[in-house]
Amino acid sequence: MKLFFREYGKGQPLIILHGIFGISDNWVSFARSVEDRFRVFIPDQRNHGQSPHDPTFNYYALCADLYDFIDEHELEHPIVLGHSMGGKVAMRFALENPDILKALVVADISMRSYQRRFRHLDMIDAMMSVDFNNAQTREDVEKQIEPRIRDSRIRQFAMKNLYRRERSGEFAWRLNLEAINLNMDEVFEGIASDALYQKPTLFIRGGASDYIKYEDFDQIYRNFPKADIKTIEGAGHWLHAEKPNEFKYFFDEFILKNELLEG
């Protein structure tokens, strides 16, 4: 599958994988902050953003997309940074293809399986319930989803997926909500593997998030023996957006410590 992507800078290849309901645009600020040292690629994963839609939506397919992306762009030993669902893709890919990657960065996700969360279900329900025939402006759409997505920050996160169709001018969601909704259990499944990824690995967790708990550490260290686990105090699940300076600090520290830059 040919994925839409954004590219910045030059140097050591760095691929950033967004999370569920995310788009490449979510990571542009971070990409711009490191483009002096990295050639950054931010793809829209399948069924997200401007990438193609497909009824198949699972980690096998997402990892295959990443493999094809690296091959298509002839990237040698890229670093992969993945957030949430993107972190699960990155971990699985690293365990299955340890020789391809130079290093791994995982943002606020562990290897365990997760139960469906009301926040995700409410977001899907809200977005699928929008009547675009009664939406002339972006504000009209936001008013329709507001009763189900009370948190304004999460609502704005959802609204980033809104666009106008070129021919009709009508609003629509870029997300393939039907495929995502049907495969949400696949998104929340855990990683069960005896494989080891023995290259530099960084896990960054939000101190106010429950996605990486202390009891997850043992499994992380078993599969990623060289893992460092850092905590950004006060940050939630979208830690790179909530605490960008702290996130970049831990990323830069990891890069320098492991001498991961080209040249």
Question: Can you walk me through this structure?
Answer:
It is built from 11 helices and 9 strands. It is α/β, with parallel strands linked by helices and 263 residues long. It folds into 2 domains: 178 residues, Rossmann fold (3-Layer(aba) Sandwich), CATH 3.40.50.1820; 67 residues, no CATH class. The strands form 2 sheets. A 7-stranded mixed sheet has the order 1-3-2-4-5-8-9, with helices on both faces. It is 36% helix and 17% strand. α2 packs across α3.
Layout of strands and helices, then pairs:
Elements: E1 5-8, E2 12-17, H1 28-34, E3 38-43, H2 59-72, E4 79-83, H3 85-96, E5 103-107, H4 118-128, H5 138-145, H6 152-159, E6 162-164, E7 171-173, H7 177-182, H8 184-187, E8 201-206, H9 217-223, E9 227-232, H10 239-242, H11 244-257
Parallel strand pairs: 2-3, 2-4, 4-5, 5-8, 8-9
Antiparallel strand pairs: 1-3, 6-7
In short:
It is built from eleven helices and nine strands.
Give the tags.
Rossmann fold; two-stranded antiparallel sheet; seven-stranded mixed beta sheet; 17% strand; alpha/beta; globular; 263 residues; 11 helices
How many domains? The number is: 2
Mean pLDDT, as a whole number? Answer: 95
Q: Which fold name fills CATH's third level, the topology of the largest domain?
A: Rossmann fold
Query: How are the strands ordered across the major sheet?
Result: 1-3-2-4-5-8-9
Distance between the termini: 32 Å
Give the number of helices.
11
Sequence of secondary-structure elements: EEHEHEHEHHHEEHHEHEHH
